[in-house]
Amino acid sequence: MKKLVLAYSGGLDTSVILKWIKETYGCEVIAYVADLGQREDMEAIRVRALETGASRVVVEDMREEFVAEYVFPALRANAVYEGTYLLGTSLARPLIARRQLAAAHREGAEAVAHGATGKGNDQVRFELTYLALDPHIQIVAPWREWDFKSRKDLIDYARKQGIQVTVTAEKPYSVDANLLHTSYEGGVLEDPWAEPPEDMFLTTVSPEQAPDRARVVEIDFEKGNPAAVDGTAMSPAALLEHLNRLGGENGIGRVDMVENRFVGMKSRGVYETPGGTILHTAHRALESITMDREVMFLRDSLIPEYARQVYNGFWFSPEREMLQGMIDGTQGNVSGTVRLKLYKGNVTVLGRRSSESMYREDFATFEEDEVYHQKEAEGFIRLQALRLRIRNLVKERKKES
Length: 401
Prior knowledge:
By secondary structure, the protein is an alpha/beta fold. The chain is built from twelve helices and 14 strands. Helix 7 (236-249) crosses helix 8 (274-290) and helix 9 packs antiparallel against helix 10 (318-328). The longest helix has 25 residues, at 376-400. The protein is elongated.
């Protein structure tokens, strides 16, 4: 190959990879940088890539696209992996890989590369996207090729090569950040009994240090998508960023879990997802008054499979697209407003309202009404119990014989 496009973050792994690829393959390396709202200095990352040996650096702002076309579809699905993880990294990788591949096509590059390890999920997410969109592309995955065995080896190599990185042997966390979340792996976190150090967290205060006064917020939805906060319409990225700030200030969205990686091992990850946690709670609350019971039960049965597909890297697969179509078909009436209280790590629903609401107070009331005849419930119950009664009658007949 003569030219390669590397998904570059400016961190330890991709900085070492950039230098290693040039030494190993002798090809031109273009660094591709995706701005997903990770609150980093993009100009500093660009300069670092050039100083490390990149011939060019492509920086693209994908914040709005990320939230509107990846985060919100997953929100409409209430997607949560293994009951806990809101899929922050899983949703970002297919977008980065798709746009990186497009850059490779524009630049006339024969190959793409990523910094994912041979133990993790990201290698699958990147490469499934590459191959789904371009079955002929060459892929370089240095962690599966080189002789380095650990991040300590990478730190030593970076120092010898004069590569400036922020990771140290004392804090060797692997950190991934975007508008949806910040994730942490490695270091002391590899012991599932060890408590995460407080100084590790970047976007949330601890619930103990959160304000003693609750923050009330109202979120408007249109067909399952968040559209406004406290009556102010916002773009998808601006809305999520605003809720990240509110949630972070109130200690919301911290998760510590041991998850099942696609490659087969268990891995401990710690996550901060303040805005996403708020939105998931609000979305569920609005669905409770706008979605038909049987539709909700059926849609809920799809959530584990949808989340598994996204987690495992199958965003650009026919099965994920089929599920998305089914799920989006349930969201036509999910419009309205949810009022929430944010307090010391908790998100509490205070109220919900919608012009599409199926909640009827005249039916649900415990007071006198003129629309529901309670005696009719007797026949309903006896019909539901018919098969149970017959089952017991069969048992009685067997005993008698």
